Amino acid sequence: MKNILIPTDFSENAWNAIEYALRFFSKSSCNFYILHVNTSEVSRFQEQVSTNDDTIVSSVVKSPSKKLLQQTIKRIVKSPYLSDKHRFYPVMDNNYILNSIRKQVTEKKIDFIVMGTRGASGLNNLAVGSNTGNVITKVKCTTLVVPENAKYVSPKEIAFPTDFSFFYNVETLQPMADIIEANHAAVRALHINKKSTDLNEDQQKTKNF
């Protein structure tokens, strides 16, 4: 059973990432955790705590985000890509995005994070905000980034960019191996060398592995 975390800001880009994930993992038994991080409430809480105002507690509970998250789950249930292998769990957190995602990854033993992007600039404009670049580089979890308006096509060839300087253990490669097996896909290792030099001994060992 795979555990998949999908952060959402309730935008259409975020919804596209959800539908993409449903199709991408259609052959796998999965728990999908649909996470909305309410960063605005964190800022309000910090501002009001300094003035000893406890009314923030009730406003957090009554946040309209909870209703939007419930509506998202209902929309998923009506999706034509729904599978009986999938289970869905709404998660709300009043926190900073990076901290919240790290917490969910640890507590729920997340295998994949799926996130949507806006526009051609990629990592800097993700559906959950500008912190997503940090999620990809600073959260120890495999992350699938879905470009804006991307439509799912079963992968038949997977590019694996590498300079062979990092040794990939079995645990690191397992998520990609699962995707390859599920889709009967081929993998192509892509190495780009700016200079016409041979691989060093360590790089050659990694390549052979």
Automatic annotation (TrEMBL):
Gene3D superfamilies xref list: 3.40.50.12370
Pfam families, sorted: Usp (PF00582)
Superkingdom as given in the UniProt entry: Bacteria
Coiled coil region boundaries: none
Protein name per Swiss-Prot or TrEMBL: Putative universal stress protein UspA
InterPro entries on file: Universal_stress_UspA, UspA
UspA domain mapped to chain residues: 1-43, 101-147
Family under the similarity heading: Belongs to the universal stress protein A family.
Alphabetical list of SUPFAM superfamilies matching this protein: Adenine nucleotide alpha hydrolases-like (SSF52402)
